[in-house]
Design brief:
11 helices, alpha/beta, binds aspartic acid
Length: 316
């Protein structure tokens, strides 16, 4: 079981808790490949998805995960909600809270907004991405994908490349991979590298050849233009030339290195389209598949916590 009521970030998770989630997700991954995909971990429970930012993969993945576990799932269209009529995030959350959901899945453009909301409601809250802060289920699904491909999740060299500064995926991943004792390299233009990031125990370079040298895993990130307010890169063409992953740059990594991308991808900007589709190198589709399994595991474990607390009537 998890020691927390909410899943707000990788930061608060122990190594043992990460392993517990991944081990259970492994079972769900197997179940998801069978024709009997349903179980009852969330039966009788209500899951509400509140996405204040666009999402394809994450929202559908949480929705499928909840349904496979037997929950009543409602996905709210936040652009069509009272928020657009001026209601605050907290008022909306309190209104929903009065309907007694058990799990609230929230994505928000502002860092810290999901944690703030979690303080106000009685249910378990899962962070589906808050600003540039954290995206814990993405890091967990990436970890599961790596563990399945490499047979382990420690002592690997992992290069995370591209727009680090705006990426919650990079942040959650470097926290998780660091906890599991891997060597993490951040590769990208200096303008897209947060200052002082070296203090987190990662290596930093702006050179793809040096960054990819001997890597077991190459994780590409999307250029997050919606979070950029100025000229961070000379041009997309120049960016692709220097930092876009193509077969020539990948040749510096280990011959069996895997290629990852959280999606959505800008083909021809951060990654070569043919390489992204190469099933011998790219595990991008497997990442999507593992996303459902990891979200099932996380919600199952939080639900177990809720049921136990209810029994003992000790809500934290
Ligand atoms: N889908 C991921 C996120 O929500 C990555 C991205 O958008 O580039 O952070």
């Amino acid at each position: 079981m998890l020691q927390h009521r909410h899943l707000l970030g990788i930061e608060g998770l122990s190594k043992a808790e990460i392993t517990t989630i991944l081990d259970l997700a492994e079972l769900y991954a197997k179940q998801n490949r069978s024709s009997q995909k349903h179980s009852t971990a969330l039966s009788g429970m209500t899951q509400v998805n509140m996405f204040f930012e666009a999402s394809t993969r994450t929202q559908s993945s949480f929705e499928i995960a909840g349904k496979r576990l037997g929950a009543d799932v409602m996905s709210m269209q936040m652009s069509a909600s009272s928020i657009s009529k001026g209601e605050t995030l907290i008022d909306t959350a309190m209104t929903l809270n009065a309907m007694h959901p058990d799990l609230l899945v929230v994505r928000h453009p502002h860092s810290g907004a999901v944690a703030l909301l979690a303080e106000k409601v009685n249910c378990a809250v899962l962070n589906a991405g808050d600003g540039r802060h954290e995206h814990p289920t993405q890091a967990l699904l990436d970890a599961l994908t790596i563990r399945r491909a490499k047979g382990r999740l420690h002592r690997l060299t992992i290069a995370i490349c591209g727009d680090i500064a705006h990426s919650r995926v990079a942040r959650s991943n470097l926290l998780l991979l660091g906890k599991m004792e891997n060597r993490v390299r951040l590769v990208g233009p200096r303008t897209l590298m947060p200052s002082g990031i070296e203090q987190l125990g990662v290596e930093v370079t702006d050179d793809m050849e040096a960054g990819l040298k001997g890597a077991d895993v190459v994780m590409m990130l999307r250029l997050q233009k919606e979070r950029m307010d100025g000229g961070f890169i000379p041009s997309e063409r120049e960016y692709y030339h220097r930092w876009g992953l193509d077969p020539a740059k990948l040749a510096h990594a280990k011959p069996d290195a895997i290629v990852m991308h959280p999606g959505p991808m800008n083909r021809g900007v951060e990654i070569d389209g043919v390489l992204a589709d190469d099933i011998n190198r790219s595990v991008i589709q497997e990442q999507v598949e593992m996303g459902v399994a990891v979200r099932m595991a996380a919600m199952d474990l939080l639900a177990r916590g809720l049921r136990n607390h209810k029994k003992e009537e000790v809500y934290v």
